[in-house]
Amino acid sequence: MTTIAFIGLGNMGNPMAANLVKAGHQVQGFDLVPENLRIAGENGVTVMANAAAAVREADVIITMLPAGKHVLAVYNDIVAAADRAALFIDSSTIDVDSARKAHAIADAAGMQSLDAPVSGGVGGAEAGTLTFMCGGSAEAFKRAEAYLSVMGKKVVHCGDAGNGQAAKICNNMILGISMIGVGEAFALAEKLGLSHQALFDVASTSSGQCWSLTTYCPVPGPVPSSPANNGYKPGFAAALMLKDLRLAQEAAQGAGASTPLGAEAAQLYSLFNAQGNGDTDFSGIINFLRGREG
Ligand code: NAD
Description:
Layout: E1 3-7, H1 13-22, E2 26-30, H2 34-42, E3 46-47, H3 51-55, E4 60-63, H4 68-78, E5 87-90, H5 96-108, E6 112-115, E7 118-119, H6 121-127, E8 130-135, H7 138-151, E9 152-159, H8 163-192, H9 196-203, H10 211-214, H11 238-255, H12 260-277, H13 285-291
Parallel strand pairs: 1-2, 1-4, 2-3, 4-5, 5-6, 8-9
Antiparallel strand pairs: 7-8
Helix pairs in contact: 1-6, 4-5, 8-11, 8-12, 8-13, 11-12
Residues 7-13, 30-33, 36, 51, 64-66, 70, 73-74, 92-93, 118, 121-122, 236, 240, 243 line the site of nicotinamide-adenine-dinucleotide.
């Protein structure tokens, strides 16, 4: 049994912490929202009064917070209270710069750290089937693996500090762009009198195939488990897709990378969100694309 501090018990953090409890670990949790603490308590997490109290005597410290500024604030707040031998793992999706700053805070205090953002959403957090993309030293990765594999089914070491976040935003930039491409193809097919199923049958076995088509098809019918069959209930909310596309653009600008389709995808998801679709599954962008035609 390991004592694990878990800070940030929201939609993702609470089910992840619950899986660590189920695996027999002592989990000390903190969140700013009392309702989230109540749920954590019901799941067997020991609820602490603040973040500094949660990390005391913890061997591992996991954060699952909204953005880079929250992670840096929490790291600065807890670093003095944490045990020198503790391992920091940040699973939030944040900008690469902040991730590297968070590593530097831990490093300056002599502690090991890992950025370990996830894909798989709330369903994956509940089922313990997340994918973790990790950045940090090989030693930190080796220490973290046993805990991450309780919460996920795939744990990948992507390289040095910040590379987990880099992998996450690059992957999600592909996803945002490909979903728009698939949505446009179905919208065009409709105008040309080609059925959804016929386009799916051809493209899913041809050079147009991709995850956005074959696993997450944005029209109802061809893939019964996709959110299109369920009123575009997330799944992966459009607001989170926009967040990740913006992080990718920020990183591209900082690194001097040219990502014109990533920029266009961020712009389209921004318009889609502005029309009140932030809580809609990101594949619902096909409806927005249809609306832009003509
Ligand atoms: P959420 O808003 O439900 O949870 C974040 C929690 O952090 C909230 O409960 C909030 O009260 C807490 N918090 C903020 N500042 C705090 C502080 N100083 N101390 C303690 N707690 C604090 O968000 P979520 O959906 O759980 O997502 C968490 C992270 O995971 C985000 O970075 C998100 O981008 C990423 N992510 C989410 C999903 C998803 O499907 N929801 C999928 C992949 C990655």
